[in-house]
């Protein structure tokens, strides 16, 4: 979602702001803007659409100054127009904002009583208007910002800049992350460390409720109660913050290709030669229920993991999408273990679900890609998936890395509960260790898939079918395809086909069947036959054995390497991702930043 950058520098800041915003493009946005203070004078430039529009504007209407803030906006309140773009300004105040000010209507009413009328449709403008109102009443910038903060409800990260103040930014965090970067006589603020990576590797993360007065001399940080707070300065690994395409046409292509290495790294950590390696306080023996909660692709990773926890540990396991779970307020017990899966670790609904659980279950566990994220910090135990920065909006390497960590957890649960014998455990760990090699082989399908994708790109609707743990993979395949190619796609459990979706089948509907030759294979083949009997266009992804039994009469086949049955979804994620990727490329869509989508969904 929106991205924030702020710089109190020693050089002209506009180019740096735009460059930093480029590093935040991956979060998703539909307008952008910057404001600077030059010799005490505040000014701003904003443009709709991609950042090059803002760059073009700055060529014709440059903005001087060594202090500045910038923003990429993903529209929530009000359309993507220049007027609604950030920074929002009122008199001496400019502000950029991530998140939502939930009580902005009440605040507008309060402002109206004071004779102040907003000019935009945004919730953010309220912040600028309030701050100015307090300054008009005699407060200085610092006091006015703090007074404003006291009135705001919702989840937000805010950054203020002021006319007449060349050496001041005010930052605040409540619900949306914000990082302060330390330079030599320079200071920076970013909505994540990626934005700051070229400028500094010395970062301080603001905590929930913190606000900070930032000058070139440093940052004074206060907690929600207004007390001075000491927050650690950390060195971040700049390698981890690299966001280069590395010769690939798209980040998504690079991230798909990285998966063998990502899984090898995660295996080294979680499954070294000595066996399963999870924190000692993650103990499944006294648990009577597991709840897995997430959104989107991470939810489908949970759905796969349900099969594993039930099979390996024989433990009841529920899955839920976070946005439903949090408002359903389900009964919990002290013998439940709640697992929250999130690439970004900032997804608003998942975070809210975690907060709902935190007092009421035995333990909360976060499976995240960003170890400094809110979800990682608020859970009792955080397990990093070690996938490295994922830039493409469509999650790929995070999905398979989440699956790997969840598989190791399920095996550990089986062992803790005495449900898995040593031989089976050894066979499963061996199978997991073979994954990097197998994923590498599957990457060889990229070329044939690119050819098939030319036909798939013509389709209006595409169905994905799978059984057992391949059912959630069918859901994931459909999500991947629809989000980047904009083709309508649905995933179904193969057995559900004749309960409705078969009505859709005709010559024009490709049906992608993900089916390794496992114990349910024959049943899936029957479902596939039903599709072919109605002239459906079947694409079967299976291993050599499966294709020899059922490949005849299909529109196309993809030969996959053999894989131990439970872990097939990890391997078959590769063709699912490649099908989506190449179809989107064939259609010419914006693969890395598909329309309307944001990488990190920090609002409900
Ligand atoms: O950062 P998270 O894993 O919590 O994000 C959850 C979903 O928003 C995310 O997986 C989304 O569905 C992706 N666009 C899928 O490719």
TrEMBL record:
Domain SIS: 280-420, 452-594
Residue intervals of the Glutamine amidotransferase type-2 domain: 2-217
GO-annotated cellular components: cytosol
Catalytic residues, chain numbering: 2, 599
Keyword Nucleotide-binding on entry: no
Membrane-traversing stretches: none
Reactions it catalyzes: D-fructose 6-phosphate + L-glutamine = D-glucosamine 6-phosphate + L-glutamate
Main location group: cytoplasm
UniProt xrefs under HAMAP family: GlmS (MF_00164)
Subunit structure: Homodimer.
Identification of the protein by name: Glutamine--fructose-6-phosphate aminotransferase [isomerizing]
Species, as recorded: Thioclava pacifica DSM 10166
